[in-house]
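Run log // design_07
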């Protein structure tokens, strides 16, 4: 007789799971109140491409610490069609089978499971993330009596404050993607959708089409109905083959926007605006001032020398406003530093003919950058690039984060 439910040890070799956690490829987080742990692949795993039996399965996997029973079984990590076509060891050739085409929803993965008499939500890597908390509140206000205890329901969490790239407007939704029985088998989407009625929507199923036609849509930024996709309209598609294998195909413009919105930090804006602001400066001096190699600066200049203008073409209004607000703040701080230099120099100008006295007075000033600028000012040399370099932001998060992608 087959086992009615899965255990962690039966699903994943214990020594391999322990090794993945030790190597930093999988993280294990405890529930704040219950004897549960959630296992999720890490950013290190993503960056290094360490995809194997353990890391692909740890995508919001929840287990009971006491019994080892798996109480929430998410979909395994799946990859882009292009990766399957590139002989990647973790992405073998796709099966020669019929496949369904689902919309790829651009939100946060939610894992819904029943434990200790209550339906609970985790996001991909946390029991208590902002997204999980939002979804839990929403789930608690809906009728969950049709849901089947023991079944894991996988859904996408969508609400305005959690926007990644696609603009869903005011939509607030829990979009059902798939469901697993306790033994790990997948429930047909139409069957799972019956229980989901009243909780949220169900992922859109597109008409079947040949793979080459589907990929052409992504390359030409086109939706299945023939209308154009800006990248803020749709993320792309998920293919589910008859055997259960999944792959994704993203719209080209979405990929571009995702890279911008999840990759650009305040430091990038500082550097890009600096290139434009000091456009007339010699390459060597500007490269040193902005911490660029000559090759990097040369590449930017050969492409027109206005990286922020190119960056802001066809991006969400919110991102455009964020970039401009960072620039405005930097310019305000720059103007304040320039004024501080002029005021300090005016107070010491009477010592300009006695360099020793001037130096002794400058050393009394607490601001090191100000001291350096005053010596440049004394010698009639420019101070603007020095002051701009002093504004270089510390390492910071990008405009938005999307660990799932």
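design_07 sequence
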């Amino acid at each position: 007789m087959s086992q009615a439910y899965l255990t962690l040890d039966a699903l994943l070799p214990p020594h391999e799971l322990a090794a993945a956690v030790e190597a930093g490829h999988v993280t294990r987080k405890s529930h704040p109140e219950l004897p549960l742990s959630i296992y999720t692949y890490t950013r290190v795993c993503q960056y290094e491409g360490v995809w194997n039996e353990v890391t692909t399965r740890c995508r919001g996997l929840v287990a009971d610490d006491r019994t080892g029973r798996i109480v929430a079984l998410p979909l395994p990590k799946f990859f882009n069609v292009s990766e399957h076509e590139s002989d990647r060891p973790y992405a073998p050739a796709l099966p020669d089978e019929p496949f369904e085409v689902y919309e790829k929803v651009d939100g946060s993965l939610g894992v819904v499971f029943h434990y200790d008499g209550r339906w609970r939500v985790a996001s991909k890597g946390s029991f208590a993330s902002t997204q999980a908390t939002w979804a839990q509140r929403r789930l608690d206000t809906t009728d969950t009596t049709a849901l089947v205890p023991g079944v894991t329901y996988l859904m996408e969490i969508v609400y305005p404050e959690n926007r990644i790239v696609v603009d869903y407007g005011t939509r607030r939704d829990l979009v059902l993607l798939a469901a697993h029985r306790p033994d790990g088998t997948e429930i047909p989407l139409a069957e799972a959708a019956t229980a989901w009625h009243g909780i949220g929507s169900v992922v859109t199923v597109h008409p079947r089409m040949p793979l080459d036609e589907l990929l052409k849509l992504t390359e030409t930024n086109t939706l299945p109905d023939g209308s154009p996709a800006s990248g803020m309209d749709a993320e792309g598609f998920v293919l589910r083959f008859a055997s259960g294998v999944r792959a994704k195909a993203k719209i080209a413009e979405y990929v571009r926007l995702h890279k911008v919105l999840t990759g650009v930090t305040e430091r990038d804006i500082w550097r890009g605006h600096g290139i434009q602001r000091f456009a007339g400066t010699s390459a060597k001096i500007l490269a040193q001032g902005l911490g660029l190699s000559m090759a990097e600066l040369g590449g930017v200049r050969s492409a027109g020398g206005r990286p922020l203008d190119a960056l802001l073409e066809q991006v969400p209004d919110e991102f455009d406003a964020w970039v401009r607000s960072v620039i405005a703040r930097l310019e305000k701080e720059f103007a304040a530093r320039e004024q501080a230099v002029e005021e300090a120099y005016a107070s010491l100008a009477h010592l300009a003919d006695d360099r020793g006295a001037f130096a002794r007075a400058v050393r009394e000033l607490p601001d090191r950058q100000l001291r350096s600028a005053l010596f440049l000012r004394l010698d009639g040399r420019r101070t603007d690039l020095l002051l701009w370099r002093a504004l270089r932001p510390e390492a910071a998060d990008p405009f938005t984060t999307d660990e799932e992608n």
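The chain has three domains: 1-72, 74-250, 264-390.
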